[in-house]
Write a structure and sequence with these properties.
Elements lengths: L3 H16 L19 H17 L2 E6 L18 H6 L5 E5 H5 L3 H16 L3 E5 L19 H7 L6 H20 L3 E4 L18 H17 L5 E5 L18 E5 L13 H18 L2 E7 L9 H4 L3 H11 L9 E4 L17 H12 L3 E2 L1 H7 L9
Helix pairs in contact: 1-13, 6-8, 9-11, 11-12
GO molecular function: hydrolase activity
InterPro entries: GH, GH26_dom, Glyco_hydro_26
Keywords: Glycosidase, Hydrolase, Signal
């Protein structure tokens, strides 16, 4: 097996080759759905495509790794993360959420904004979902009145003010992208739409037709106002193509799904995980997209955590099964959820059992996994030199 040092040397060589344009013609990089995307945004898409389809490796990511940890004592020093405490490096993919950058108090908003900026500056990819608070239920969870909003948007019915509210919310998203972030991101809006828990989900008025139309409206509105966004579409545990908004509106085909390999979890087994990732990479190949495992984790409950039941879960139930499949391994990244006193832990931390920490160090050392220092060498946002 190639050791980590050899891998880093290989990544340095790949970065150098990219810089002189040698990799630019090695495969057909997809065109972003925003045809006016900045050169840096285009470079990010091209390199995500290469990582997924050509590199034989996968980026590892986590939601809020630099602004939350299992203690959540204040907001963190961006030099620290639970993952860095264990393996000495941050994740390659930094997850964030527009809800936390728009709706929280100014101290928390600043903490998450500072963390995202630092991750980008250090070479990581930054992706944002949006746990969008509904107008009526004041929650991202399903609410009967909120479930009518997108139908009003697609039909142009502003009699209740829902259409005006919808665009005002998107204006805030665009403001954050342009004025507070200012760098390319992967945006994953209206995610897990085939589940029944979000107000934009399967109980939405008008169903998949309304959803697909609303997603297209959202993309059109945002890409007319910023050129820093790649758009990810991510159903839950199945491909759910009835919700697909079309090739002109999606850059990344994502899959969300928790708990493969967890004892008693029969709704998303390891076999189901591999099958849906194979379906996602097939679909991505047919449609010229990048594929990704956009949310997963052991899904801990109370005091029962994967690091006591299956300490090598990340390798045994995620990495090895994915890499046993020629198709499933074509994903560009895997992202897990938040470590906080109210969430997870989804990754080991400095106080986790030794077996869990050791297993995650082995996961980090595996030449197939990429962390922040690895992807920094690839210069994800740097366009190739012109030939």
């Amino acid at each position: 097996m190639v050791n980590r040092l050899s891998l880093r040397r290989g990544l340095g060589l790949l970065s150098a080759l990219w810089a002189v344009g040698a990799l630019a013609s090695a495969w057909a990089a997809p065109e972003p759905v925003d045809r006016d995307a900045t050169p840096e945004t285009r470079a990010l898409l091209a390199k995500l495509h290469w990582i997924g389809w050509e590199s034989g490796q996968v980026m590892f990511g986590q939601e809020f790794p630099l602004s939350y940890d299992r203690r959540e004592v204040g907001y963190l020093d961006v030099e620290q993360s639970d993952i860095k405490d264990v393996v000495g490096d941050h994740p390659a993919v930094h997850g964030s959420d527009f809800h936390f950058l728009i709706d929280k108090d100014r101290h928390e908003r600043f903490a998450h904004l500072r963390a995202a900026r630092r991750a980008y500056a250090d070479g990581a990819m930054v992706t944002l979902d949006y746990h969008w608070l509904g107008r009526y239920g004041a929650s991202h969870n399903w609410d009967e009145r909120d479930a009518q909003i997108l139908h009003h948007v697609v039909t142009g019915d502003d009699s209740t003010g829902d259409v005006t509210w919808f665009y005002e919310q998107l204006d805030e998203v665009v403001r954050v992208i342009n004025e507070e972030l200012g760098f390319p991101i992967v945006f994953r809006p209206l995610h897990e739409m085939n589940g029944n828990w979000f107000w934009w989900g399967s109980r939405l008025e008008g169903g998949p037709t309304t959803y697909a139309q609303a997603y297209r409206i959202l993309v059109d509105y945002i890409r007319a106002r910023t050129d820093l966004v790649l758009f990810a579409w991510s159903p839950d545990k199945s491909l759910a193509t009835e919700y697909y908004p079309g090739d002109d509106y999606v850059d990344v085909i994502g899959i969300d799904g928790y708990g493969p390999g967890r004892e008693g979890n029969d709704h998303f087994t390891v076999e189901a995980m591999v099958a849906v990732l194979e379906a996602a990479t097939d679909f991505a190949a047919e449609h010229g997209k990048v594929a990704a495992f956009t949310e997963t984790g052991y899904h801990t409950h109370g005091e029962i955590a994967y690091h006591t039941e299956q300490p090598d879960w990340w390798t045994r139930s995620v990495l090895e099964p994915i890499y046993a499949s020629e198709k499933a391994r074509r994903i560009a990244w895997i992202l897990t959820w938040i470590n906080a006193h109210w969430s997870g832990p989804y990754t080991p931390h400095a106080e986790s059992p030794a077996a869990s920490q050791d297993a995650f160090r082995a996961f980090h050392a595996d030449p197939r996994t990429l962390f922040q220092r690895d992807v920094a060498k690839l210069k994800l946002y740097e366009p190739p030199a012109e030939q």
